[in-house]
Each structure stands twice: as C-alpha cells, then as structure tokens.
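Morning!

This is the sequence you dropped in the shared folder:
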Amino acid sequence: MCRHYLEEIDHLTSAANRIDARITALLARLGHDRNVASLDTIPGIGPAAAQIIIAETGGDMAQFATAGHLAFWIGVCPGMNESAGVNKSGRTR
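The structure's back. Tokens below.
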C-alpha cells in the first residue's frame, strides 16, 4: 500500500512539474519572463507568486497608482494596526 501511495506522489509531482514548466514557457513566450524576474526580487514573492501576479494583472501594472498600491493588492504590505498606543498584528495576507 505504501508503494502505491509513493508512486502516486511521484506521478502527481511529475505532473505538477510539467505544468510549472508549461506556465514558465508560456510566460516567456508572451514576454513576461523579465516581469516575473523583477517581481521575484520583492521580499516575500517567489517565482510561483510572481507568475500568479502576472496572470492576475495581465502584466499591466499601470492600473496601480503607486508601487505601494500594488504591494497592498499583492498582500506583501504589512498592516499597521495601532490603537491607544497598543500595536496589534501587522501580518501580511
């Protein structure tokens, strides 16, 4: 039974890797590979998150007035929640 589950894990991992390679190739073909690389430099954003951001925005960042607006939309901008001098959670999404 363990062998069956290990083979299933290997099969699903292989399928996920093929899908990741296809997404990377499609983004490169559409000219977004530099955008993905640029987004990947932001702390908290990895290659997969950068690909998702490009997919969600279509690569057009002009819809965001400032870099701060984009950071807030992405969810990497920590919140500031202070009341009566007490700091509450500033976690990111």
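Headline: The radius of gyration is 18 Å.

More detail when I'm at my desk.
O.
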